[in-house]
Amino acid sequence: MSPTVRVTADNETCVTSSLCVYRVPEVFDQDEEGRVVVLDSRPSADLLTELHRARRSCPTRSIHVEVEEAPET
Q: Could you give the number of structural domains in the chain?
């Protein structure tokens, strides 16, 4: 099984750099003020590499990615 991914973003600390939107437009967008909006808080694990890149590139560390590994059966 694939890991479960959870994405959150702190709209209050966002400085509208838009890097997250460019990296993963399936997950991130911007509101009318240019601040981050999470479109999909439980995206596919297939996007994990790009989500981590978006998290690392955020200048204010406003993007948070949590990964819960699937239990082994």
A: 1
